[in-house]
Design a protein that fits this description.
The structure holds two protein chains of two kinds. Chain A has strands at about 10-15, 20-25, 30-40, 45-50, 55-60, 60-65, 70-75, 85-95, 100-105, 110-114. By secondary structure, chain A is mainly beta. The two termini of chain A are about 20 Å apart. Residues about 1-5 of chain A have low confidence and may be disordered. Chain B is mainly β. Helices cover about 0% and strands about 55% of the residues of chain B. Chain B contains no helices and eleven strands. Chain B has strands spanning about 5, 10-15, 20-25, 30-35, 45-50, 55, 65-70, 75-80, 85-95, 105, 110-114. The radius of gyration of chain B is 13 Å and the shape is globular. The mean pLDDT of chain B is about 95. The interface of A and B includes residues 2 and 49 of A.
Chain lengths: ~110, ~110
């Protein structure tokens, strides 16, 4: 498969366990955040987003937590499955900024052991 | 499928060749983006078009030339590239630039410059 990044932080979990992937963002003015999943050979796929007026948002098997005090974002995946193996990265946007473009982190590689 | 398609999926070209990458979105979006994804680096924004107007050129060398004939199509024309330009080139679209809105990505074109 294709490598989307070398020397990425790696998280290895057992199938069925919960996974927590962390992201530190840089701009205290950022007010919109997205988590993407990128499987080998594919483009990034939207997972879940959150706006800065919230500190938690839940989707199907995923939860995003936002801590604006320490500029920290996390993605929790419940009952991790082999199909969850991918690179996950967060993106931030300053919606009030000059262009409102997404700024992406480097990513974390999640490896699920059967 | 995200509604964003890219062709070709793989491209090998010499430094003197001219080639074009194509992106098409079927989501009714008004903003389209080109990103470069290299190993060891986060996603790098290259160009943004909003309502067919180029609104961002992120200091991209002139050997990369974008074209957006309408809101559904985006091209990246390549000319006299360098080996360090080898990367995954990703196209994305969103409702409009600057809105706190999800960007949807295509599968990418894996470019190798010899």
């Amino acid at each position: 498969g294709e490598s989307v990044g070398l020397h990425l932080p790696t998280l290895s979990v057992q199938e069925g366990d919960n996974s927590i992937i962390n992201c530190a963002y840089s701009n205290s003015a950022s007010d919109y955040f997205i988590w993407y999943k990128q499987e080998s050979g594919k483009g990034p796929q939207f997972i879940i987003d959150i706006r800065s007026n919230m500190d938690k948002r839940q989707g199907q098997r995923v939860t995003v937590l936002l801590n604006k005090t320490v500029k920290h974002l996390s993605l929790q995946i419940a009952a991790t499955q082999p199909g969850d193996s991918a690179v996950y990265f967060c993106a931030e946007m300053n919606n009030g900024g000059s262009q409102g473009n997404l700024i992406f982190g480097k990513g974390t590689k999640l490896s699920v052991k059967p | 499928e995200t509604g964003v398609t890219q062709t070709p999926r793989h491209l090998v070209m010499g430094m003197t060749n001219k080639k074009s990458l194509k992106c098409e979105q079927h989501l009714g979006h008004n903003a389209m983006y080109w990103y470069k994804q290299s190993a060891k680096k986060p996603l790098e924004l290259m160009f943004v078009y909003n309502f067919k107007e180029q609104t961002e050129n992120n200091s991209v060398p002139s050997r990369f030339s974008p074209e957006c004939p309408n809101s559904s199509h985006l091209f990246l024309h390549l000319h006299t590239l360098q080996p360090e330009d080898s990367a995954l080139y990703l196209c994305a679209s969103s409702q409009e630039q600057g809105a706190a809105d999800t960007q949807y990505f295509g599968p990418g074109t894996r470019l190798t410059v010899l």
